[in-house]
């Protein structure tokens, strides 16, 4: 994708991120290494996501007795993971935001048609008053993300308060989500070439959930 939609942020292509992504894309990478290096990218995504939260002026007194005019986060946040793969991103969020509330949405893609099916959603009761970090490592056709966003909106979350954190995206998924939702933000580590005939991201990394949770 040469031009990114205005509401899409891609992590900078540093040597570190390129090397981490190369490790997790490699089919020879064993599960332990896949988890370790995915977690490192997830941490970078969470940190970048937090950069996009609004702040308000806050003045504090330092131990030298001097005043410092700084800022503090403006609102409350929560995480929402799209199960199963999105659950892999919860720990990275907890490492940055201790005791953060986390909701779950269970959406599964049909293996034949790639159509998403919503099974279950359990969200913090006051979610409409929070910024939501929506967690899913893979954005392929965009079907699962769109369904999850619709669940958030129907629970009173304002679209501009949604930050979708994603590890690998296909242009098809980016276009599908941003053409429907122009006010939320997508923060992704990498945008790949496209989708294969089974709607897997190419070159991609395979099935993230399998590689993180059940790969040999
Ligand atoms: C994967 C992935 C996304 C979805 C992306 O989940 O984690 O949720 O596919 O594809 P889409 O953009 O075409 O909807 P999957 O349904 O395979 O379940 P899993 O999390 O259990 O692996
Ligand atoms: N889900 C995955 O885990 N990988 C893909 O490439 C597409 C959907």
TrEMBL record:
The keyword Glycosyltransferase applies. Pfam families: UPRTase. InterPro entries: PRTase-like, PRTase_dom. Residues 13-213 form the Phosphoribosyltransferase domain. One of its GO terms (biological process) is pyrimidine-containing compound salvage. One of its GO terms (molecular function) is uracil phosphoribosyltransferase activity. Its EC number is 2.4.2.9. Its cofactor is Mg(2+). It comes from the Eukaryota. Pathway: Pyrimidine metabolism; UMP biosynthesis via salvage pathway; UMP from uracil: step 1/1. Keywords: Allosteric enzyme, Glycosyltransferase, GTP-binding, Nucleotide-binding, Transferase. Belongs to the UPRTase family. This is uracil phosphoribosyltransferase. It comes from Diversispora epigaea.
């Amino acid at each position: 994708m040469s031009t990114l939609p205005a509401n899409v942020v891609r992590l900078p292509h540093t040597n570190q991120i390129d090397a981490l992504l190369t490790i997790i894309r490699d089919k020879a990478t064993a599960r332990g290494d896949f988890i370790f290096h995915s977690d490192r990218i997830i941490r970078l995504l969470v940190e970048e996501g937090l950069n996009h939260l609004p702040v308000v002026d806050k003045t504090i007194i330092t131990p030298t007795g001097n005043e410092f005019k700084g800022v503090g986060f403006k609102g409350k946040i929560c995480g929402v993971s799209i199960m199963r793969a999105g659950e892999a991103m919860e720990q990275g969020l907890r490492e940055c935001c201790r005791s953060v509330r986390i909701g779950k949405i269970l959406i599964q893609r049909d293996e034949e048609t790639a159509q998403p099916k919503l099974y279950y959603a359990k969200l913090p009761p006051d979610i409409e008053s929070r910024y939501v970090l929506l967690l899913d490592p893979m954005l392929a056709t965009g079907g699962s993300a769109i369904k999850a966003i619709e669940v958030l909106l129907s629970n009173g979350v304002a679209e501009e308060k949604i930050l979708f954190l994603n590890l690998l995206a296909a242009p098809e998924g980016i276009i599908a989500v941003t053409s429907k939702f122009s006010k939320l933000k997508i923060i992704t580590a990498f945008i790949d070439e496209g989708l294969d005939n089974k709607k897997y991201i190419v070159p991609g990394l395979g099935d993230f959930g399998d590689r993180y949770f059940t790969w040999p």
